[in-house]
Each structure stands twice: as C-alpha cells, then as structure tokens.
Design brief:
Elements (H helix, E strand, L loop, with lengths): L2 H9 L5 E5 L4 H12 L3 E6 L2 H13 L3 E6 L5 H15 L4 E4 L21 H29 L2 E6 L13 H23 L4 E8 L8 H4 L8 H8 L13 H8 L10 E4 L10
Parallel strand pairs: 1-2, 1-4, 2-3, 4-5, 5-6, 6-7
Helix pairs in contact: 2-9, 4-5, 5-6
Amino acid sequence: MNRTDYLASMYSLEGQVAIVTGGTGVLGGAMARALAMAGAKVGVLGRNREHAERVASELEAQGGEALALTADVLDRDALESTRDMVVGRWGSITTLVNAAGGNIATATIPEGGDVFGMSPAAFQQVVDLNLTGTLLPSLVFGRAMVEAGNGSIVNISSMASPRALTKNAGYGAAKSAVDNLTRWLAVELGTRYQGKIRVNAIAPGFFIGEQNRKLLVEPDGKPTARGRAIIGHTPFGRFGEADDLSGALVWLCSPSARFVTGIVVPVDGGFSAFGGV
C-alpha cells in the first residue's frame, strides 16, 4: 500500500452512514458537508423540513449522498421513527454527530441585569436542549450502531464548559454536563460492546452563528466589545470558521481514531490554553 492509499484508508468514511442533528445550522451544516466529502452517507436532521432539504440538496450537488430528516431531538418517538427509516433506506447507522443545541436570551444575564432574577424555567430549557438533546439521539441511534457492530458518536461541547463565561449560565452548565455524559457513555458503551462503539466530543471555541451573531459582531461586521475581548484571549486572533471543525470531526469518526474514546477535543484557536498574559 502506498502513502496515498494508506492515508485514504485511515481517514475515509466510505461505507459509513452518519446522522447530524442540528444539521441545518451553520456549524452542523459544515460538519454534515465534511462527513459527506469524506465518503459517508449523511442524514441531515433538523426541526425545519425545508432547511434540512436545502442542506441535503447542497451535499448532493457537491457529489455526496444525503437525506433530509425532520425530528426534534427531545422527541424520542420521532427519533426512533427516523432511525428506522434511515436503516430501512441505507441498511445501518454508524456515525452520530450531536450538533443540535444552543442558548436562549432568557437563560443569560443581560448587561446590568439581576443575577438572582434569572429564570429557572429558561435555565432548564437550555439544559434540556443541550444535554437531553444529546442523550436521546445517542440512545436511539446508538442502538443501531450496536446492531451494525461499530459506531462513533461525536458530541458538541463548548468553551463555555471548562471555563466560566460571564452572563452565560444555563449554556455553560449544560455543556459541562455534555462533557461528563461523553465520558460516561464512552466507558459504558466501550465496556459493554468490546470497544466497537466510541464516544468523543469536540469543544469549539468562538464561532459566529445565527444565535450569537449580534453578541459577537456589529452590523458592519466589526467585533462587539465582547467579541473583541474573546479575540484578545484567542492566540490565533480571530473567530473560528465553520470548516475549522472538519478535520477533528473526520478524524474522530474515521478508522484512524479507532482507539480513541472518552475525550473532549478543543478546536478553539488556543483560547483554552491562554491565561491572558
């Protein structure tokens, strides 16, 4: 085997069937594209059918094979129906990327706001979306991986997990729980299924999406005060770009990571390493 063939075999996802929850978002869509370009068949799962179809069509236009899927990550029955449909169509499911998640304004503390006035209901809503919305797809699609005899689950954490960020309560707590869930699932599934099912996470740094755009950049594209503070604490001196996640994702899903499980990989331009001085 020559060098080119060796690298292709180590990082190829040919024959894999992947589901990307939150695949209609900026980061989820980029991750779905990376998996498709690496050879996987990709189910783009989101709550909005039209958006899922748009992303799936884009993947197919680029030479991939994709399927638009509609389900809420908090609806187990809908997820199970989706799983059964995908297995019926493509024969198996071997990869899951839990990219669904996010924050809501009422679970954060506004500038000058009352910390003690934060809505517990909003806090719980964010925890449900990010934590339970990672657990349920893992349970539902993970069962199909057991039947297939192999699988890789990649959860999406955040820099809000290892380091407390001002104003950001529910989201940081939820992503910290996702990190712990990742390790627990890695141990539980690894020991029960002889290392056939791997579970890892990626912790993105600061990427601009629709949910945080106004928080990080002005209408003219220049960073806000918070955006400047973030860039000032990022050694690479910029926000992440969606495709910056592709390499880590494909690696974690590929044969080259066959002995890797239970880790959280920062993709953050050095943010987590920087002490500010």
